[in-house]
Structures are given as C-alpha cells and as structure tokens.
Design a protein that fits this description.
coiled coil; flat; P-loop_NTPase; 6-stranded mixed sheet; 1001 residues; 26 helices; alpha+beta
C-alpha cells in the first residue's frame, strides 16, 4: 500500500482545506511530521484512517462522525476527507463526508445531512477516473479485502501509535494477549475453547439427566423390592453409578423370583385344601336336599289321601260332560235355525210395511213379477237421462262463456286505462334514474376529495401544534448557543493562559539526572517558574468539560429545533396557509355534501329496477288485451251453436219426464220402486226357508239326545260344560293325578329313602370350613399375584435401566472425551503442564515470530547488545505462554523488559512494532506496506542511539518504503530534511511542506 495524496476540509483542527502530497514526501524515504503540541499532527493520521475505514483510531472515535468536524470551519463548508493511494496494483481514490449538521437553505435552524462515501479507480488506458461504488458497506468490505487488515490491525501496523508498544513491551500476559488477539484474529481459537466448554457442560448435563433417570428407576425398583434392594450411595454423574444400580437390580430380581416360587407352592396347597372343603360342603348339601325331599313327599301323600272323595265326584261330572258333548252339535244347529227363523220373519215384516196396500198381501211370486215390470219401464228412460245431462252441460258452458266475456271486457278496459298513462309514467321513472345517476357521480367525486381534505385538516392541526413547539425550541436553542459561546471564550482564554505558562508546568516535572521529555537533556540549569494566576491542566480540563457540555446542549437543542422546523415545514406544505377552523368547516361541508349525494345515489339501483318492472308490466298488459280480443271473436261462434242444441234437447226432455219434475226425478222414483219390490220378494222366500229348516233341526236334536242316554234334549243341555268350566275341572283332575304320581315316585327313590334313614346333615359346619379354605386360597393368590407383579415390574424397570445405560454409554464416552479436550484447551487439565490455553498457545507462536522479527532491528539499534525472546514460563501460580524477555549480550543474562531504561524501552518498542508489522503483513496475505508512520518517543534517545534508530528506519527504504516520523523533537528537524509541519492558530491549523519538491494547498 502506498499513499499518494491526502485532501482534508474542515476536519479536526483544520478549519479550511489542506492537502498533502505523499509522493513528494515518500521520495526522500524518511520524512518528519512535526508541530507544536495540540497542532494536529495525529489528526493527519486520523484523516488517513478515516478515509480508509470511515473511523478514527481507538479512543479518538466517538459518536457518528459529528465530532470529526472542525470547530474553526465555516458553517457552510462541509467536512470532507479524500485519499488517493495504490494498493494491490490498483490506484484508488476514496472520498468520505461524515454526517453534517448544516444551516437550512430556507428558514432558520439546521438540518442533518447523512454521511457520504465515494470510491473511484484510475483507468490507465483511458486516463480517467471510474466510479466504483457509493455504498459505505461495499467500500468498507473492498478496502478491508484489499489491505487484508482490519482497522485495529492497520492502526497498529501502519500508524504505529505513541506509547502503545511501550505498554505492550512492559504489559503482563493478559494485556499482551488482548492486543495480539485483535491483530491476529485468534477469536476462532477462543471460540473453539468456548464451544468445547459448552459441549462439556451440555454432555455433562445430559449424563446427569440420564443418571437421574437411572436413579429414579432404581428408587422405583427399591419401592417394589423393599428390603431386598439397597441403593448405591452415589450421585448422578459419578463413575460406577450405572454398574452399581444394575448389580443391585439383579440381586432384587433374584430375591423376587424366590419369593414368587414360595408363593406358588403356598397357592397350590391352598387350592387342594379348598377343593376338599368344597367337596365336603357339596356332600352335606346333597344329603340335606334328599332328606328334605323325602319329608315333603310324605306330606303330599297324606294331603292327597284326605282329598280322594272330591276327586271321585269330579271324575263322574267329567264323564257326563263327555256324553253331552255328542249332543252339542245338534243343540247348536237348533239354536242357529231358531235365530235364523226369527230374523227372516222380522225382515219380511219390515219389507212389506214399505209396499203399497195393493201389494201388501201378495206372495213372493207376485212381488217378483211387479219388480220386473218396473225395471222394464226404467230401462226406457236411459236415453232421456243422457239428453238431460247434456242439456245441463250446455247451460253450464253458456254461463261460462258469459263470465269469460265479462272478464275479458274488464281486462280490456283496465289495460286501456293503464296504457293511456304509460308515457307520463315512463318519463317520471326515467327522471328518477337520471337524478340518482347524477347523485352517484357526485358522491364519487366528493369521495375522492374527502381524504385530501382530512389529511389537510390533520396537517393544519399539527402545524399549529408544531408552531408552538418551534417557538419554544427556538428560545431554548438561542439560550444554549449563548451559553456555548461564553463557555468557548472562557476555555480559549484559559488555554491561552496555560500555553503561555506551559514551560513552568513542564519544569515542575523535571528530575535531576532524568532526560527532559521535550529536548532530552539530563541537565536543567534554569527551569521556568509559575507566575501568579497560573492556569493548570485541571482548570483547563474543567473549562473544556464545561464547553463540551454546553456544546452538547447546544447541539441537542439545535437538533430538536431542526427536527421541529422540518416537521413544521412538512405540515405547512401539506396544510397550506388557511386557518384550521376554515379547513375544518370546509371538511364538514364536504362530508355533509358527500352524505347527501351518497344517500341520493343509493336509490339508483331501485330506480333502474322500478323502470324495468314498469316496462315488463306494459308488455304484459298489451299481451292480455290482445288475447282478450281473440277470445271474444271465438266465443261469438260457439254461443250460436249452443243455443240451437239447447232448444232441441228441451223438446225431447219435455216428452220423456211426463208429470215428474224431471227425467231424473222420474227415473229415481222407478229405481226406488224396483228396489222395494225386489227386497220384499227376497225376504218372503227367506222366511219360508227358515221355517222349514227349524222343523228339521228339532227332529235331529231329539234323536241325538236319546242315543247319548239322556231322556230329553234339555237334560243333555244341562250336562254340557262351557270351555272355562271344562278346563278348570280337567286341571283339577290332572293336578291331583300328577301330585299323586310325583309323591309315589319320590317315595320309591332308593337314594332318597336311604338319605332319610341317616342322621340330619350339618350344613353350618361344612360352610364354615369351606369359607375358611376359600379365604386362605384368596390370600395365597393375592400373595402370588403381588410376587408376580413385583417380578414383572422389576424385570421391566431393569430392562429400561439396562437400555438407558446402553444408550447413555456413548454419551458418557463423548462426555469424557470432550471433558478431556475442554480441560486441555482451557489449560486446566493435568496433561497441560504449562496451563496454557489454546488461544494463548497460538498467540505464543505468533509472539515468537514477532520477537524473532523484532530482534533483527533491535540488535542494530542497540549495537548488538539486546535480543528479544519469547518465554512460556509460568509466573507464580498463573498460566504461561505470552512472556517476553530481553537477553543482554553484555552480561549473558535474560531479564524482564521492565528493566530497560527509557531510551532502551523506546527503541525496543520500535523494533517490536516494526517486527509486528512484518508478521501481521505476512499474516494478511503479503500485502506490501510502502508507507509507515511512527508516532513520538524519539526524545528519550541519546545522539548515538538516535542515529542507529534512524539508520534502521532509513534502511526501510531499501524495500521502497517511506517512513513518516511524528515528533516535535528539535534535533529531528536537523537530521530529517523532508518535513510536513503543522502550524496552529486561533482560526485553525495549517500544513506546510518543507525540504521537498511538492505542492501543498
């Protein structure tokens, strides 16, 4: 990387525009950047770092870039840094503008412009600059990739900071490790340590969880096994827990199986005892049953003997009933014949009562002849009846035609009246449609205007509120600005007073024999003295702190004012100049008009529908009127035909009905006469037949009673039994016979008779014995079941525990492996003898490379006396790995770097910084660094050492490098001809180029 040109505007202490031609400075190889304290020497380096990375080094970085702006700059001038450089064979130009709080172009107050960045590349063939990007992120990634270094690495390698490497040289291992970690990006090794530690904790937790589950199963097994199982006195995660639990489970299972075998034996004995008791109980119950059966049979036999006379009477009554059953059919026929004769005589009497007196005494044959004559006359009236029905149909049709004619006349009249008003009706409906359409269109137009009116009203209300806020913010901003001006004036006055007396302040820190921090002399013949009213550093810092607080308050109030003004301008731009009340009135009027138009427009669909229905009604009425006219023409012809047919039928019917009111009346009279005569003839014949049948049944009944052994038919009828009595008598006979047979059968049984000869059975004793045996069986079965459940549960829990141990074995092995690795990388393992962490081990290797590279230059600077070496010895009880010692060739002893003098510490630190730069450069991929800066420290060297150091720095030119030394030591101005001087003043600092051919603007 080679710098060509740097342009700064309103940056840091530089109020105007300043430029540095690094090509002119680099031509000399070694150049000096000097100037008074506080002039801005380090700000030049800050500008280079800001151009590359968008941030300044370390502690000087704050905020979002607002503090980079020069307090001396004109308010209208924007801060800008432009750097032109060559890196990786590409010539680039980077321009950065930090955020800028500038005055508003319109109105009072300020506004904040965002940061801007440009990246351009020089195209040699075309001789022009080509734009590459304007994105902060893309440019940052491109620069970091080309340089191969982060901002922290760049600040340590290219901008060798004042005092940092002296502290690094004397620092302890922890502080040294932090710096090396940032430079060599060893975070990935720390991440490995962290990842291994996390993995160890995770696997340890998993192993503990698995052991906890195993112990939980063991506790459940102990609950099942009782005293047969003893749990191991181990906690989850301790070695041997799984084996101890499985061994205890095996012992518990064996004991449980022994208990199960004993329970099986006891159950078998209880089952045998219960079987014998049940068999004895069954025998006693059978003996008691047979004895009770025999006693009951004897009692039934005694009762049957007592009722033997009643049984013989019932048998005789049943015998007479069986004989009477032979006469029963004849009795039934006699009763039926008598009932039929009575019914036929009654029917004949009723039928003759309806006949005329002339036929009341006629026989059946005479009645039948009269019925035939009436039927013949009825048949002659059938044609006249058809003519009568047709006449009725003709009259009905004639009436229907008249009704239709009246209905059609009403339809024509109503249709004519409605159609006469059609033009006016249609015009009215069309007018309603047009009005609703206009209202709907107006509503759509007003709807478009509602939202802008509402936003404008809201903006007007916000404008009024922001106007009040802007007045208050303006008052506060003016007050803060006045306080900031007063604080700045006070600080500048104190600073100027302190600068006038700075010599006395430096003289107060001089020690006889120690080198001066300014000139390096060890003798101080006439140190300056403080005068009355001297301003010390604390007073200046208090004034500066007060200024910073005032500036912060001013910036905060101005930002607030700018924010309020921007919001006010936006609200005013949207609301306009009209008062809020007027805008509210306009919005309300617009809402009322919109509501009215919307309500009127909502009737559009109804109006269209009403017009469509009216047109359909017109078409319907026209069709009805036309159809009525067609039907009227057809009715005229039909009415003439019906009139002629009606006259012919009336003449025919007048002849046929005679004296009756109508043919139908005459026919009904004849039909009734035929029916009465026919019914009377039938009932007369039925009565004659019933009398003959009754006489025959009387003869047959007398003959049947004589053959059955009865004297008269009445005696046979008395001996008959009805069904209920017959069944009851048969039931009593059957019951007596069955009971007698059953008693004889029981008394004849051999086992029953034998049981009756034995003593009475003792059921209570047998039941008590059986109950005791059953209880003992249940107890034995319960004990056997408990033992079986215990075995099954122990088998299940043991199997689960064994499976859990099997699953946990790989995890336990992984935990042991990860724990060993985590302890090794964390430096806590006994295998790690030096207790060195993994990251420290990597950094120790880098530090060893840095020490070797630094020794090459340190030996030249110290005339071959000193050599830097890396030490990994432990200090006390701490860890080892990042120790740094110096070997003194004069004494041959190795000692701590803290024993070096001030000058020795400086050139050792410088050598270490240059060596670190070489190693970091190689680590970054070999990016060539053609420009380096060294900030301060040369005042602590004597003349000979200074020459040697400058020779070493001058030797860097052999590799076509240029080195810039930042110092205010006067002797360096004489030794280094190429100089960049920083001159400070009340209006800001300026840059001057001396001893080279170049341009500075």
């Amino acid at each position: 990387m080679r710098l060509h040109r740097l342009d700064v505007t309103a940056f840091g202490p530089f109020g105007g525009s300043q430029s540095v031609d690094f090509d002119a400075l680099s031509a000399a190889g070694l150049f000096l950047l000097h100037g008074p304290t506080g002039a801005g020497k380090t700000s030049v380096l800050d500008a280079v770092c800001y151009a590359l990375y968008g941030a300044v080094p370390g502690a000087r970085q704050s905020g979002q870039g607002l503090t980079l702006r020069s307090d001396h700059a004109d308010p209208a001038t924007r801060t800008e840094v432009r750097l032109e450089l060559t890196v990786a064979g590409r010539r680039l130009e980077i321009t950065r503008q930090p955020p800028w709080e500038r005055p508003k172009k319109r109105g009072a107050g300020t506004t904040l412009d965002k940061a801007q960045t440009w990246l351009r590349e020089y195209d040699a063939p075309s001789g022009a600059w080509k734009d590459l990007s304007r994105s902060h992120q893309e440019i940052g990634e491109e620069v970091t990739q080309l340089l191969g270094m982060s901002r922290e690495q760049f600040c340590q390698v290219v901008l060798l900071p004042q005092g940092d490497f002296a502290r690094f040289l004397r620092a302890d291992a922890g502080a040294r490790g932090q710096l090396l970690g940032r430079l060599f990006d060893t975070q990935r090794f720390a991440d490995v340590e962290k990842r291994l530690a996390e993995r160890r904790r995770t696997t340890e937790a998993q192993v503990r969880d698995g052991d906890s589950a195993l112990l939980a199963d063991a506790h459940r097994m102990q609950q099942e096994a009782g005293e047969a199982m003893e749990l191991p006195d181990l906690d989850p995660g301790e070695p041997g827990l799984a084996a101890a639990v499985l061994a205890a489970a095996a012992v518990a299972r064996s004991t449980a199986r022994e208990r199960l075998t004993v329970a099986h034996c006891r159950l078998t004995a209880a089952e045998s005892a219960q079987f014998a008791a049940d068999r004895a109980l069954a025998g006693a119950r059978e003996l008691a049953r047979l004895q009770a059966r025999f006693a009951q049979a004897r009692q039934r036999a005694v009762r049957l003997e007592e009722r033997a006379g009643d049984h013989r009477t019932a048998q005789a009554r049943m015998e007479r009933a069986r004989k009477a059953e032979a006469v029963a059919p004849a009795l039934e026929l006699r009763e039926a014949a008598e009932a039929g004769h009575r019914a036929a005589a009654a029917a004949e009497t009723r039928a003759r009562a309806l006949l005329p007196e002339s036929l009341a005494g006629a026989g059946a044959a005479g009645l039948a002849s009269a019925a035939r004559r009436a039927a013949e006359e009825l048949g002659g009236l059938e044609s006249a009846r058809r003519a009568e029905r047709r006449l009725a149909d003709v009259v009905d049709e004639r009436d229907r035609l008249d009704r239709q004619e009246r209905d059609d006349e009403d339809v024509r009249r109503e249709a004519g009246s409605w159609l006469a008003d059609w033009d006016a009706t249609r015009a009215g409906l069309q007018s309603r449609v047009d009005s609703a359409q206009e209202a709907a269109t107006r509503a759509e137009q007003l709807a478009v205007q509602r939202e802008p009116a509402r936003r404008r009203l809201e903006a007007a209300r916000l404008r009024d509120e922001l106007g009040r806020d802007a007045d208050e913010a303006r008052r506060m901003a003016l007050a803060a600005a006045e306080r900031a001006v007063e604080a700045r004036t006070h600080w500048l006055d104190l600073k100027e007073q302190r600068l006038n007396g700075i010599a006395a302040e430096l003289a107060a820190e001089l020690t006889e024999g120690e080198p001066c921090a300014v000139c390096g002399a060890t003798e101080h013949p006439a140190p300056a003295e403080k005068f009355a009213g001297h301003v010390d550093r604390e007073a200046e810092e208090r004034a500066l702190a007060a200024l910073q607080r005032a500036e912060a308050e001013r910036a905060r109030d101005e930002r607030r004012l700018g924010t309020v003004r921007e919001a006010l301008a936006a609200a005013t731009a949207e609301a306009g100049d009209l008062p809020t009340a007027q805008l509210a009135s306009q919005a309300d009027e617009l809402e009322r008009e919109y509501g009215h138009a919307r309500r009127a427009g909502s009737a559009l669909h109804a109006a269209h529908e009403e017009l469509r229905l009216a047109e359909q009604e017109r078409e319907r009425r026209l069709a009805e009127r036309q159809q009525a006219e067609v039907r009227a023409a057809a009715r005229l012809t039909r009415r003439d035909g019906l009139d002629a047919e009606q006259a012919s039928l009336e003449a025919e019917l007048a002849q046929a009905r005679g004296s009756a009111a109508s043919v139908s009346a005459r026919a009904a009279e004849l039909e009734r006469q035929v029916a009465l005569l026919t019914d009377a003839a039938d009932t007369a014949r039925a009565a004659e037949d019933a009398a003959r049948h009754l006489k025959d049944t009387d003869a047959r009944l007398a003959d049947a009673a004589y053959r059955a052994g009865f004297d008269t038919p009445q005696a046979a009828a008395a001996a008959l039994l009805d069904d209920t009595a017959h069944r009851e008598l048969q039931r009593r006979l059957d019951e007596w016979q069955s009971e007698e047979a059953a008693a004889r059968a029981v008394l004849a049984e051999a086992d029953t008779a034998a049981a009756a000869q034995q003593p009475p059975a003792d059921l209570d004793a047998a039941e008590r014995t059986a109950a005791l045996a059953a209880q003992r069986l249940r107890d034995a079965a319960s004990a056997r079941d408990r033992a079986a459940r215990c075995c099954a549960e122990l088998d299940r829990l043991s199997a689960r525990a064994t499976a859990g141990v099997r699953r946990l074995t790989p995890l336990r092995e992984e935990y042991e492996r990860v724990a060993r690795l985590a302890g090794l990388t964390a430096g806590t393992s006994a295998d790690n003898e030096r207790r060195m962490r993994l990251e420290s081990y990597v950094l120790a290797a880098r530090l060893e490379q840095v020490a070797a590279a630094a020794t090459v230059r340190l030996r030249r600077m110290s005339s071959g006396r000193y050599t830097l070496v890396h030490s990994d010895d432990r200090t006390g009880r701490g860890r080892s790995g990042l120790g740094l010692h110096v070997v003194d060739a004069w004494t041959g002893r190795e000692r701590d770097t803290a024993t070096l003098s001030g000058g020795e510490t400086f050139f050792a630190s410088l050598a270490l910084a240059l060596g670190l730069a070489d190693v970091v450069t190689d680590e970054a991929g070999g990016v060539r660094l053609d420009t380096l800066f060294i900030d301060e420290g040369f005042g602590s060297l004597d003349d000979q050492t200074l020459d040697e150091v400058l020779d070493v720095l001058d030797s860097l030119r052999e590799r076509d490098r240029s080195v810039g030394i930042v110092s205010h030591v006067p002797d360096l101005r004489r030794r280094i001809h190429a100089q960049l001087e920083v001159v400070k003043g009340r209006s800001g600092s300026a840059l001057r180029l001396r001893g080279v051919q170049g341009l500075l603007r």
